[in-house]
């Protein structure tokens, strides 16, 4: 019974991961990148690192806080686009709370 339940959970997680679209922002204008995120809600953007040539970087970028998991918040990020080096978008980041000082910490 436990094995069946575990298999069902893994199948659902795999299906959710395959449903998200992937794009290369370096081939799109910044406006088009933002419009794509706004239209789909959450996308994966994949691009080449500027510091390490040949190294692909990717992450999941979201339209709103509603696309983040519990314990995460929407945080500002930037990706390269065809018309600018720094297109401002948002991604989910895990938040740890420093209980002593009542502040939020974004671990990297």
TrEMBL record:
Keywords carried by this UniProt record: Signal
Species this chain originates from: Mesorhizobium wenxiniae
Protein name as it appears in the record: KTSC domain-containing protein
Top-level taxonomic group: Bacteria
Source organism phylogeny: Bacteria, Pseudomonadati, Pseudomonadota, Alphaproteobacteria, Hyphomicrobiales
Annotated signal peptide: 1-19
């Amino acid at each position: 019974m436990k094995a069946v339940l575990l298999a069902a959970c893994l199948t659902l997680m795999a299906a959710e991961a395959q449903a998200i679209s992937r794009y290369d922002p370096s081939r799109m204008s910044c406006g088009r990148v933002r419009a794509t995120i706004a239209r789909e809600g959450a996308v994966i953007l994949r691009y080449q690192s500027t510091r390490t040539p040949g190294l692909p970087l990717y992450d999941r970028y979201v339209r709103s806080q509603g696309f983040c998991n519990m314990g995460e918040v929407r945080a500002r990020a930037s990706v390269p686009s065809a018309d600018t080096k720094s297109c401002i978008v948002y991604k989910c980041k895990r938040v740890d709370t420093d209980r002593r000082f009542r502040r939020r910490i974004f671990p990297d």
